[in-house]
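Open question from group meeting: does this chain pack into something compact, or does most of it stay loose? Before anyone orders reagents, we agreed to write out a predicted structure and look at it together. Recording both the input and the output here so the notebook holds the full record.
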Amino acid sequence: MDIHRDPVVAERRILPALPDSDPEMGEIRWERWEPALIMTHIDPTCVTCAFPGPLSTAFGKTFYTPPPTLARVERSVRGRPSKWATVQHRSYWCITHWAVRCPRCDEMRVYRQDDWTEIHYRPPTTERAVPPTEDNVLF
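C-alpha cells returned:
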C-alpha cells in the first residue's frame, strides 16, 4: 500500500531551538528566521559545511524598562527655581540579540548585541556538516 506524501510536508524539518532567555537580560522573544543580507565585505558561506549562502538570521527582543528621568514641570521665575518631577517612561520590547544559522548543517550561534558576546552555540548536525565526496573519504 503506497502512502501519498506531500512534497511540501516532506521538505519540512525541525529547526534548532533558540534560547528562551539570557541570564543577564531575561526572556527573549524571537522573530522568524530570514535569509541574511548579502554584503560585499562579508563572506556569506558557512565555514563548517561550505554552504554557499546566504545564511539565516533571526532577531531576539527583550523587555526593556528605561531608567526614571527628571522632567521639568514648572519653569523658574525670578526668585523661585524650576520644579522637577521624576518620570518613568513606558517599557518596550527592544532588539537585543542576533542569531545566525546555516540552513544546510544547522550550526547556530546566538549573540548579545550590546557587546557581541556569544551566549549560545549549537554544533552542526553531523549528517549535513560534512560535504559529500566522490569516494566518501573525508581526507
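Observations to bring back to the group:
DSSP finds two helices and ten strands in the chain.
The helical segments are 7-11, 126-129.
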